[in-house]
Each structure stands twice: as C-alpha cells, then as structure tokens.
Amino acid sequence: MSGARGQFSSKTGFVMAAAGSAVGLGNIWGFPTQTASNGGAAFVMVYFILAFLLAYPALMAELIIGRHANANVVSALSGLGRKPLTRFIGAGVGYYGIIVASLILSFYTIVAGWMIAYLGEPVTAVLGAEEAGTWLTTDSVTRNLIFGSGFAFLTMWIIGSGIENGIERWSTRLMPVLIGLLLCLIVYVLTQDGAMEGLKVYLLPDLSRVTDPKLIIDALGQAFFSLSLGVGTMLVYGSYLSKEESLPRLGAIVTFVDCGIAFTAGLLIIPAIYVAQHNGLTIYNDAGELIAGPSLIFQVLPSLFDSMGAAGTFVGFAFFALMSIAALTSSISMLEVPVSMTVEKTKLNRKQSTYLIGLTIFAISTTIIFNFDLLFTFVIDFTTKYSEPLLGVMLCIFAGWVMHRDKLLAEVSAGHPDIENSFFWKIWPTYVRFVCPVLILITFSQSMAG
Ligand code: PHE
C-alpha cells in the first residue's frame, strides 16, 4: 500500500463530492426522459417515495461500511466477514462492484463525449463554421473517439490529483455552477409558449398510474442509478469521511440534493418538450408514447434552441455545459472505485493507477464505439438494470447480517451522539436486514419477469 489515504477536508467537501457523484446524466437526462415516458407526475411521486424508502437506506449501508473499513470496496467487504467463506464472498462482491463501476464509466464516457461535442456546436455557429457544427452533431466513430477520449482524460486528470485536490476541489467548484446554469435555463424556458402545459403534466399526477409495475421498476432502477448505488462509489467516498460527521444526516442531505436536482431538471426538460411541441415538433406518437426515447435531448433540445434565434446559441451552450459538468463530477466518482483499490492493493502510486485503469476503461469505451449496436444498450442494461440492484441487495446484507452489530451501531452513532433518540436508530438496523433486501428483490424479480 503506497502512502496515506486521503480524506475530505470538510463536511461541505464531502457533500459536494457525493452530491456531485449522484447528480449526473441520470438526473438531467435519465430522470426527465423516464418521467416523460412514464406519464409525468405519477412517476415523479413513486420515484421520490422509493428514493427515500429504499435508496436512502441502501446509501446508508454503503457509507457505514465504507467509513468503518476506511478502505477500498474489496478490502472493506472482505474485511467484514468473520469466516473465510464470507470473506471470500465479500471480496467477490467487491470485485463485481469494481467491474460494474468500470463498465458504467465506459458507456458514460461515450455519452459525456456527445455532450461535449454538442457544447462545441454553438461555438461553431458563432464562428460561422456550419460544416464543423454538422460534423459535431452527427454520429460518427471519429467524433465519438475524439470527444470520448477528451472526456476520459479530464476524468483521469482530476482523479490523478487525489481526494482533496482533485475530487473535492472540482466538485466544490463545479456543483454551484451547475445549479446556477440549471436555474437560469428554467427561468428562460418557462417564459416560452407551451411551457405551462408541460408544467401541468409534470406536476399533476394521474394517480391511476402509480401502481403500474413498469413505472415502479423504472423508478427503482432510476433511483439506484441516480444515487450511484451498488458499485462501491458511495462506500469509497464514505471511507474518506471523518468520524466526526453524522452519516445519517449527510446521507439524507445527499439524497435530498440528488432528488432536488432531478426534480429541478424535470422543471426544465418537461416544459422544454412541450415548448418544442408547440413549435411544431412531433414528440409523442398517436399512442401517446415518447418518440425520441433516450435520444430525446439530442433531438428535442437542439431544435428548441434553434427556434429561439440568437438567444438559442447561448442557451444551447449553457445547457450542454451543464450536462458536461454533471457528467464529470459523476465520472470521477466511478473511476475512484477501481483506482482506490489499485492504490491500496498494489505498489503503483495514485497517478500510475489512475492512468493504467483509466486507459483500460477507455479501451472498453472504444470497443463499444466500434460495436455500438451490439454493445451499447447491452452494457447499460447489464450494469444498471441487473447488476446495480443485485449489488444493492448484497450491500444491505453485508451491512445488516455480516457486519458485527456492535460495530454497525458504533459507526452509526460516531459523529451523532444523540442518535439513540432518533427514528433512524430505531428503524434502520432492522430495516436494512429484512425490508430492503426483500423489497429490492421483489421489484427486481418482477423486472426480470417483465
Ligand atoms: N449517479 C450518476 C448519475 O446520476 C451515475 C453513477 C452511477 C455515478 C454509479 C456513479 C456510480 O448520472
């Protein structure tokens, strides 16, 4: 193991980093798209219930295991076991988490590359370089390789700089910019014709839809992805947190910020869809299904920006800057999962580990780019639909059943002396043992059956 482990310098530093990890393409791209394709406000309601009922307790499991172990995900999980078999399984779950985190990063890098390419388009418009603009917004292997690798190097550069100087510094700088940009864009879009209709769809739930199994499954998957759960990200960030901080409180803040930004992003995207529709774009087919699906923002939004005239150039630039920033504070947290293990388990230092792992993951991105139709959706489904919920169950089981109960309770109360009177203390330890794994498994098995 080379060198001492880093730490976040303050509570704010941790919150910015963990919220930075949570707030990503999942919030600004995934959540509004899912909301639009699952009937609007009903999805939003179920999402928030599941985020607090299932995702928050699972987040707590990760933070608690991480801070207790003060180590990377493999050492942390294997260290909880008292018998060789549980230690072996712990290490296995840890490696599975690392593989999934790396695979998520491999497709995330490609999507983030698109965001950066679209960020360049308004610049070419201002410069009058129309051909370049068309190249930037047209799918091609070359474009994807250039912008994907640019984004990958940015991620490696920040992670190579360490916890405080890399992760914390950049999350603390970028998160306020992100929130500022988001708010400015909302104010602008809400003044456009058609926006109010979108706002209604977003805010007034059709209660008959809340029991739809597809809606519930989509909401659960989205909540886990959005809070960066299952793959060890939050576990590793928890391991860089001092014992003086209250985990239940910080976990709740991160959950609130994540849900808050997802909700706010919806306030932008859903009305924007209706503004685009008002301007003549076809968004839903006759059956009321979203036509564009996941590529929604690359079709709807640029055409919306175009329809805004000169202001659209600026708004488009701001929007894709927002997306790129959100992606970056998340991608660094994914890369930290394998890097922390390599730094702690081999003789390589942080920079060497970062570039070795970062380049390997980019090699996977390259493979996906060259075999896009075959691999892109496959990797997304394998990681987010199947692996994340299963890993989430495993982490709840490790916190609830494998971790020594006295140690678990000691970790919960460290930094929160009066916790014994709280609701959290009374409910969570039992909840994470029984309710969480069972509910996640039920939802998961339904998604397999469907
Ligand atoms: N939470 C991130 C988002 O919403 C994605 C993510 C998943 C980040 C897993 C880290 C680990 O985009």
Fold and architecture overview:
This protein has helices at residues 11-22, 25-37, 41-69, 73-80, 84-127, 130-137, 141-160, 163-190, 195-203, 213-226, 233-239, 247-278, 296-307, 310-345, 350-370, 372-402, 405-413, 423-433, 435-449. The model has no long low-confidence stretch (mean pLDDT 91). The chain has a single domain (11-449), classed as Up-down Bundle (Amino acid/polyamine transporter I). 80% of the residues lie in helices and 0% in strands. Helix 4 runs antiparallel to helix 5, helix 5 (84-127) packs antiparallel against helix 14 and helix 5 (84-127) crosses helix 15. Phenylalanine is lined by residues 21-22, 24-27, 101, 104, 225-226, 228, 231, 233, 330, 333-334.
Mean pLDDT: 91
**CATH architecture, please?**
Up-down Bundle
Secondary structure: helix percent: over 70%
According to CATH, the fold-level topology is Amino acid/polyamine transporter I
- Uncertain spans: none
**Cα separation of the termini:** 46 Å
Hetero compounds: phenylalanine
Task: Name the helix and strand elements from N-terminus to C-terminus, one letter apiece.
Answer: HHHHHHHHHHHHHHHHHHH
How many E-type strands? 0
Roughly how many Å is the radius of gyration? 21 Å
Biggest beta sheet attributes:
none
The geometry reads as globular
CATH class: Mainly Alpha
Q: Please, how many helices? A: 19
Structural class: mainly alpha
Estimate the strand proportion. Answer: under 5%
Total domain count: 1
